[in-house]
Write a structure and sequence with these properties.
This protein has about 270 residues and is mainly α. Helix content is about 50%, strand content about 5%. Strands 2-1-3 form a 3-stranded mixed beta sheet. Strands 4-5 form a two-stranded antiparallel sheet. The longest helix has 24 residues, at about 115-135. The protein starts with 5 loop residues before the first helix and ends with a helix.
Length: about 270
């Protein structure tokens, strides 16, 4: 934390520990229990969890008493500071990356979509640095471990962020479809395989037709107006990044994509 932020952050911590103006008491954790004094006017507009939880009646003192035993105090600290305006809390914060899954799950539980995306992007940026360092050092096993483990924390709505991660890490390297298909056969690695397929297809300008699975080589400019289909198969409905990710994931398990005669030479490379 920089000295310039020390004042506002100290004021925030003081506010969260002051019961006088709070109308929510949140008890968080199991062993390391901590109480937070919160304010409905701030937390409810920003969190779907607090919006629902605060519908319960207040106690005699006018307080909403909430219990969150399944959330760790560290990740709740991050979430609450984020809600109260400290958007720099995850920047250059190694502890957030070390506790990535806890912070990510807390953001999901509290309905903090903007925090969830920010934490996901911060983790991807960190893992890209690690993967590229391993690749430069010739540590092939370590490189693939980072890619596989990172892509386990996936969501189709984060496709565009994972796409940037793969592009940054793989760069202009084209992997054989046989390797991608082998990766796809592992239950936990289909998302990674779909990302690799899209990246390789981008470099080769090859796409399986959206409708029939046959080969199509559109120009890059035409990709948004003719979304991966032959003219005879064309659909007027454009596809977004989430639909594209879902399509590519499914195409990895569609024999037609890999069995057309035009693709057989790629399988053997």
């Amino acid at each position: 934390m920089t000295e310039g932020n020390a004042g506002p952050q100290a004021g925030l911590l003081q506010l969260l520990s002051n019961r006088e103006y709070a109308d929510i008491i949140a008890t968080v954790g199991t062993g390391d229990i901590k109480q937070y004094y919160l304010h409905q006017a701030i937390v409810c507009p920003n969190s779907t969890y607090f919006t629902e939880a605060c519908k319960q009646p207040a106690d005699q003192a006018g307080l909403k008493c909430l219990s969150l035993p399944n959330i760790q105090t560290f990740s709740f600290d991050i979430a609450i500071r984020w809600i109260y305006g400290d958007k720099d809390i995850i920047k250059n914060n190694n502890q957030v990356i070390e506790n990535f899954y806890n912070v990510l799950n807390t953001a999901k539980m509290l309905g903090l979509e903007d925090l969830r995306v920010a934490v996901q992007k911060a983790n991807l940026a960190d893992k890209a640095i690690v993967a590229k360092a391993l690749k430069a050092a010739g540590d092939v096993e370590g490189f693939w471990d980072v890619l596989e483990n990172t892509c386990l924390a996936n969501s189709m709505k984060d496709w565009v962020h994972f796409r940037s991660f793969i592009k940054d890490v793989i760069q202009d390297e084209v992997f054989p479809l046989r390797l991608i298909l082998d990766i796809a056969m592992d239950t936990d690695k289909g998302f990674l395989a779909a990302l690799m397929l899209e990246r390789s297809n981008n470099l080769l300008r090859y796409y399986p037709c959206w409708k029939c699975g046959g080969q199509k080589k559109p120009s890059y400019a035409a990709m948004k107006t003719e979304p991966f289909s032959h003219a005879s198969c064309a659909s007027s409905k454009l596809i977004n990044d989430e639909q594209l990710g879902d399509y590519l994931s499914k195409s990895l398990y569609t024999p037609a994509v890999f069995s057309t005669s035009s693709n057989l030479h790629l399988l053997n490379t």
